[in-house]
Amino acid sequence: MTTHDFTVLNSELLVDAPIIGLRRDEVSMPGGGSAHREIVEHFGAVAVVAEREGEIAMVNQYRRSVNQRLWELPAGLLDIAEEDPLTCARRELEEEAGLAAQHWELLSDLFTSPGICDEAVRIYLARELREVPRPPAEHEEADLIFNWVPIEKARAMVMSGEINNAIAITGIMTAAEVLAGRAVARPADTSFPQRPEALAQRRIAAGRVPDMKKL
């Protein structure tokens, strides 16, 4: 079966904000002609399922876009130029949970909303934990609530709708499979071809390094 080659005919940057870009692509369509598609550009992100003795570290955080507090995994943006995802994950686990881990594995790479956004998130399983000082937080993270949740309770919270953050759902359900011995995690240094590049490459070319959020 032959599939159509969706060629980009033209591209226009509409918005350039600290943590996202918005562009409009003109794309060739099957049968002739073209159509415009608006795409939210993102740096990508990492999230961590940190497990000890059958419990996982979770945070409850306010999200302005949905005007709700959500149960989530410790997570953060890949907003440092060319930073290794595992390095970012180690930092985010320390900043949001006050934890460091000796053993890291890869649970999942997922696109969060591929209909409109190029964001991809890498989710790690972190074990052999120890507590470390948590640096001072600001903005929403200053109001963050941290809690240990049994993995089976977290699974039940997913099924009951108490947890509705897609990244947390994916991390919890894949971690539960690995921890139960029904699946095997991948090496933490597995390649990450899904990691978005458009926004980061434009910021790096403009000299917005190492912190690519600074415009």
TrEMBL record:
List the GO biological process terms.
nucleoside phosphate metabolic process; ribose phosphate metabolic process
| Nudix hydrolase domain span | 41-171
EC? 3.6.1.13
- Gene Ontology MF annotations: ADP-ribose diphosphatase activity
Cellular component per GO, a single term: cytosol
Family annotation (PANTHER family): ADP-RIBOSE PYROPHOSPHATASE, UDP/ADP-SUGAR PYROPHOSPHATASE
Record protein name field: ADP-ribose pyrophosphatase
What organism is listed for this UniProt entry? Corynebacterium occultum
| Taxonomic lineage from the root | Bacteria, Bacillati, Actinomycetota, Actinomycetes, Mycobacteriales
